[in-house]
Specification:
This is Glutaredoxin. With 80 residues, the protein is α+β, with helices and mostly antiparallel strands. It has helices at residues 13-29, 42-48, 69-76, and strands at 4-8, 33-37, 54-57, 60-64. A hairpin with a 2-residue loop joins β3 and β4 (60-64).
Length: 80
Protein backbone atom coordinates (compact mmCIF):
# COMPACT_ATOMS: atom_id res chain seq x y z
CA UNK A 1 0.00 0.00 0.00
CA UNK A 2 1.36 3.45 -0.85
CA UNK A 3 2.20 6.03 1.82
CA UNK A 4 1.52 9.73 1.20
CA UNK A 5 3.43 12.52 2.94
CA UNK A 6 2.65 16.23 2.72
CA UNK A 7 5.74 18.36 3.22
CA UNK A 8 4.23 21.41 4.85
CA UNK A 9 5.12 24.61 6.66
CA UNK A 10 3.54 26.51 9.56
CA UNK A 11 1.48 29.47 8.38
CA UNK A 12 1.18 28.25 4.78
CA UNK A 13 -2.42 28.51 3.54
CA UNK A 14 -1.66 26.42 0.44
CA UNK A 15 -0.31 23.73 2.78
CA UNK A 16 -3.55 23.70 4.77
CA UNK A 17 -5.57 23.23 1.56
CA UNK A 18 -3.24 20.45 0.39
CA UNK A 19 -3.45 18.68 3.76
CA UNK A 20 -7.26 18.84 3.62
CA UNK A 21 -7.30 17.47 0.06
CA UNK A 22 -4.88 14.65 0.90
CA UNK A 23 -6.81 13.80 4.08
CA UNK A 24 -10.06 13.52 2.10
CA UNK A 25 -8.58 11.53 -0.82
CA UNK A 26 -6.53 9.18 1.33
CA UNK A 27 -9.45 8.72 3.71
CA UNK A 28 -11.72 7.69 0.84
CA UNK A 29 -9.11 5.27 -0.51
CA UNK A 30 -7.91 3.92 2.84
CA UNK A 31 -4.34 5.08 2.18
CA UNK A 32 -2.14 6.13 5.13
CA UNK A 33 -0.78 9.66 5.05
CA UNK A 34 1.18 12.04 7.23
CA UNK A 35 2.44 15.61 7.42
CA UNK A 36 6.07 16.61 7.89
CA UNK A 37 7.25 20.13 8.70
CA UNK A 38 9.72 21.08 6.00
CA UNK A 39 11.43 23.47 8.42
CA UNK A 40 12.16 20.69 10.95
CA UNK A 41 15.11 19.41 8.93
CA UNK A 42 17.72 21.49 7.05
CA UNK A 43 17.86 18.94 4.22
CA UNK A 44 14.07 19.01 3.77
CA UNK A 45 14.10 22.82 3.84
CA UNK A 46 16.82 22.90 1.17
CA UNK A 47 15.06 20.31 -1.01
CA UNK A 48 11.41 21.34 -0.68
CA UNK A 49 11.33 24.71 1.10
CA UNK A 50 10.60 26.91 -1.92
CA UNK A 51 7.86 24.60 -3.28
CA UNK A 52 5.66 23.75 -0.30
CA UNK A 53 3.35 22.04 -0.10
CA UNK A 54 5.11 19.07 -1.69
CA UNK A 55 3.25 15.77 -2.00
CA UNK A 56 5.36 12.61 -1.71
CA UNK A 57 4.13 9.13 -2.55
CA UNK A 58 6.35 6.41 -1.12
CA UNK A 59 9.08 9.01 -0.61
CA UNK A 60 9.07 10.14 -4.26
CA UNK A 61 7.95 13.60 -5.25
CA UNK A 62 4.47 13.43 -6.77
CA UNK A 63 3.67 17.15 -7.03
CA UNK A 64 3.92 20.53 -5.39
CA UNK A 65 2.02 23.79 -4.70
CA UNK A 66 -1.37 22.05 -4.97
CA UNK A 67 -2.94 18.60 -5.17
CA UNK A 68 -3.87 17.31 -8.62
CA UNK A 69 -6.70 15.12 -7.36
CA UNK A 70 -7.19 13.01 -10.49
CA UNK A 71 -3.46 12.32 -10.81
CA UNK A 72 -3.06 11.48 -7.12
CA UNK A 73 -6.07 9.14 -7.16
CA UNK A 74 -4.71 7.42 -10.28
CA UNK A 75 -1.32 6.84 -8.66
CA UNK A 76 -2.80 5.60 -5.40
CA UNK A 77 -5.12 3.15 -7.12
CA UNK A 78 -2.52 1.86 -9.57
CA UNK A 79 -4.08 3.51 -12.60
CA UNK A 80 -1.21 5.90 -13.23
Amino acid sequence: MPQVTVMSREGCSACVRAEQDVERICGELGVPWSVSDVDADPEWRAEYGDRVPVILVDGREHGYWSVDEDRLRAELTGRA
